[in-house]
Design goal:
This protein has 348 residues and is of the alpha+beta class. The chain has three domains: 100 residues, Sandwich (Jelly Rolls); 85 residues, Jelly Rolls; 96 residues, Oxidized Rhodanese, domain 1. The chain has twelve helices and 20 strands. β19, α11 and β20 form a beta-alpha-beta unit.
């Protein structure tokens, strides 16, 4: 169902958000009409979304038999419904119909943080326009920013450096060392890679999209060339700032002992080294998918299962963890200490 900004402003969380941001949020936020008996969530669910009741009635049933009722015309409905993880009760529609707004909790927190920082005057990235709201919200929704801790958010915004760019300008070149992470503030760009018969365009980027993180995570060379298609402006973050503010939160690490437990309980173990390295020494239960092939072989992995990645030192597995996370794998880990550490643990 279509949402209006006035619909969102009924809830305390959205009450004072900037007009341009609330208009963009209304355009992109999901609202759904539910029927009597439909369930929003169950007790014990570890949900990542916040639910708001726009109209109708919801009943919450606790495991101990207690119940609570929430109606859309009450003050209680101005807050998110059962917004804890894991959920404390099961929520079902009790009215003939109900309209519910759903939004990712982490994303909403980042939007609220940005809005408050922008209003304080300390962050100069937002001019109050609808165009600015579009690229900012697209940036905050990206998987790169989803894992950013709240404590790093303001420092990240302060350290992003604006750079004007021209159509045809090459921003990063395949094979070069990584130096910056970029966000497109305005303009557009093309992503190209060298194939067997020459350079081929494989994707396009628009405002709010980010790029350049792969090489910074893996400490490897750039795996693609990015060329501006239109004049515009970029925001860039130096490698050392990226490592401090974004790299560590983006990759979840496991000790060899923890990884061994996960593998024994059904996790997928993936060796992201080259085939030659795998053949020389490996963990035989591991599936070998070299890092450079990972994007093309995603269908060999089960997104519903935990994935543990390893290489020799952790550098390539960190990059692989980022690739999988950016492609819908929700439970991904890199092995701390690499192959030798894992072999020592398995031999005990």
């Amino acid at each position: 169902m279509e949402l209006k900004p006035s619909d969102l402003r009924k809830f305390f969380a959205f009450e004072s958000i900037n007009d341009a941001i609330i208009r963009q949020l209304a355009d992109e936020t999901e609202s759904k009409e539910l029927a009597a008996g439909d369930q929003l969530f169950a007790a014990g669910d570890a949900g990542n979304d916040s639910y708001f009741l726009l109209s109708g009635s919801i009943q919450g049933a606790y495991p101990d038999g207690r119940e609570k009722k929430i109606s859309g015309d009450t003050t209680q409905a101005r807050y998110a419904i059962g917004d804890l993880s894991p959920r404390r009760f099961t929520a079902k529609v009790t009215s003939r119909k109900a309209v519910v707004v759903r939004i990712n909790r982490s994303y909403l927190e980042k939007v609220l943080s940005f809005d408050q920082l922008a209003r304080s005057g300390r962050i100069g990235l937002f001019d109050g326009s609808r165009d600015a709201a579009r690229w900012i919200l697209r940036m905050l929704k990206s998987r790169t920013f989803q894992s950013l801790p709240a404590g790093n958010f303001e420092r990240l915004l302060e350290r992003l450096e604006p750079v004007d760019v021209m159509s045809g300008e090459v921003i990063i070149r395949e094979g070069d060392a990584g130096d910056y992470f970029y966000v497109i503030k305005s303009g557009s760009a093309a992503v190209s890679q060298m194939k067997g018969d020459g350079e081929a365009t494989i994707a396009y980027l628009v405002r709010g999209d980010s790029f350049g993180e792969d090489a910074l995570i893996s400490n490897d060379v750039r795996n693609a060339t990015i060329t501006m298609k239109k004049n515009g402006s970029l925001l860039r973050l130096a490698k050392k700032d990226f490592a401090e503010l974004l790299k560590s939160p983006m990759v979840r690490w496991l000790s060899p002992g923890q990884a061994s437990i996960k593998v024994r309980t059904g996790a997928q173990l993936v060796d992201v080294r080259l085939n030659e390295e795998y053949e020389q020494q490996c963990i035989r239960s591991a599936l070998n998918i070299p890092l450079y092939q990972l994007r093309d072989r995603l269908d060999e992995l089960d997104k519903s299962k935990t994935c543990v990645l390893y290489c020799n030192t952790g550098e390539r597995s960190a990059s692989a963890a980022f690739v999988l996370s950016n492609n819908g794998f929700s439970d991904v880990y890199a092995l701390s200490g690499g192959l030798s550490a894992m072999l020592r643990t398995l031999s005990k």
